[in-house]
Design brief:
mainly beta; Immunoglobulin-like; 2 domains; 10-stranded mixed beta sheet; 2 helices; about 0% helix
Length: about 450
């Protein structure tokens, strides 16, 4: 077999391949040792025209412990490429990353730095150690891809398309957004961003889309209850510049439990715990300057319909971001299920009214001598309270009287014992939303 190119780059040796040419290893062992620099140049006018090809089945070996810059594509056709053992080789690739052979990442770093779209492609899935996405070209997978070290995204979209991007490193800091407002991962169809976890810490899934040429990032985050190893996957679903994504995908926003006022129809998240049902804290992010101000989250299940997960809180999102997050503590995962932000209807179980009271002036302790709302946790505010006798006459009006407590009097006189009807207007203190009009019966005793 004729070996078209055999080259050893020793330390501090700089190699330039001929302009616009393809560096082809047809069965040799090519090594860039520690400190060595190799550059495969373009033709000077065509971006990404200079490529490195490693061919010859099972015999072509390209080893990199130095720095290799390819101003075109890296093509590992059927040979072996590696990071040269424990050394930290650097691959800088301006074109596509194509792996049809074997790539042993070792502790190497691959930087995809193209200003034009780049593919992570080939017939064999690549497991990178460190993967850095930079410059403006969208990095798109055509195959499942793994990252064993760090995924570092610089102001660019990493598109998994319908494939998996799996972060094997369970460190919460294994995914780095160098700007939380323009670095993100998008997915479609069966595509997912998958993270391994082993800590009780917040794991950010920086998901989003490109809309009208700009990033639209709506993260999700999961905080496991403990350090047991687990695997979670997330996909953000949003059709750019539309307002019917959720319903179009089969999650009808009109089908909802009674606690939900409105379901976010613009976007949702598909979330899976990959078989485990251990509780965790789940957060969905939104931008109140663009989106509605959502108060809770719901999961698609049951009849089917959207079920409000309830007992959520809304807090600030990542530092430097305008986004907030709705957090559901002790979230119990199910299968790969749609989760959406919702606007909750206030629920009457937040408060109550007594069914009877003893009127003032009969020597009864003061707390039992009036009628008003029972609001022990101070969850709500009683805005209006009216009481009517059996003939429909209003015997008490909180706005007229200047108090929300009725002591059983009307026009200075104790009212007769018996049943009365009340009507109340109540609002939730955290959301400001009004509950459905409250009516009921109260028995006056003395």
């Amino acid at each position: 077999m004729i070996k078209k190119f055999t080259l050893i780059c020793l330390a501090n040796v700089l190699l330039y391949c001929a302009n616009g040419q393809t560096f082809v290893n047809n069965g040799a062992t090519v090594a860039v040792t520690q400190g060595g620099v190799m550059i495969v140049k373009t033709d000077g006018t065509t971006t990404g025209s200079g490529s490195l090809e490693n061919i010859a089945a099972n015999t072509g070996i390209f080893r990199n412990a130095g720095q290799v810059t390819i101003e075109g594509s890296f093509v590992n056709t059927s040979g072996t490429a590696d990071g040269f053992g424990s050394n930290t080789g650097l691959y800088r690739v301006q074109g596509d990353w194509q792996n049809d052979g074997t790539f042993n990442a070792d502790s190497s770093t691959v930087v995809l730095y193209g200003a034009l779209p780049q593919l992570i492609t080939g017939s064999n899935a690549t497991t990178f150690y460190n993967l850095i996405d930079t410059n403006s070209g969208v990095k798109t997978q055509t195959i499942n891809t793994n990252v064993a070290g760090l995924l570092n995204i610089w102001a660019v979209e990493h598109a998994t398309a319908g494939n998996y991007l799996t972060i094997l490193n369970p460190d919460p800091a294994a995914v780095v957004q160098n700007n939380v407002n323009d670095a993100f991962v998008s997915s479609t169809g069966n595509g997912r961003l998958i993270r391994h976890t082993n800590q009780k810490a917040e794991y950010i899934f920086p998901t989003g889309i490109t809309e009208s040429g700009n990033p639209k990032i709506r993260e999700a985050s999961i905080t496991p209850a403990n350090g047991t190893p687990r695997v979670y996957s997330v996909r953000y679903a949003d059709y750019p510049s539309t307002s019917n994504t959720t319903t179009t995908d089969g999650y009808d926003t009109a089908r909802k439990s009674g606690y939900i006022g409105m379901v976010n129809d613009v976007f949702y998240h598909l979330i899976s715990a990959n078989g485990n049902t251990d509780p965790a804290d789940l957060a969905l992010f939104f931008d109140p300057t663009v989106d509605a101000h959502w108060q809770s989250m719901a999961r698609w299940q049951g009849l089917p319909e959207w079920e409000d997960l309830q007992n959520t809180v809304t807090v600030a999102g990542q530092t430097g971001s305008p986004r907030f997050k709705v957090v559901k503590s002790v979230w119990v995962p199910t299968t790969d299920t749609a989760h959406a932000l919702v606007d909750s209807v206030a629920v009457k179980t937040d408060f109550n009214f007594p069914t009877a009271f003893v009127a003032d002036g009969q020597g009864i302790p003061a707390e039992n001598t009036y009628f008003s709302i029972i609001n022990q946790a101070n969850i709500v505010t009683l805005q209006e309270l009216s009481v009517f006798n059996r003939w429909g006459e209003m015997v008490f009006d909180s706005k007229r009287e200047g108090t929300d407590k009725w002591y059983g009097h009307f026009n200075g006189k104790m009212q007769p014992q018996g049943n009365y009807v009340y009507r109340a207007v109540v609002t939730n203190n955290s959301t400001g939303k009004q509950y459905p009009l409250v009516t009921g019966n109260i028995s006056l005793l003395w």
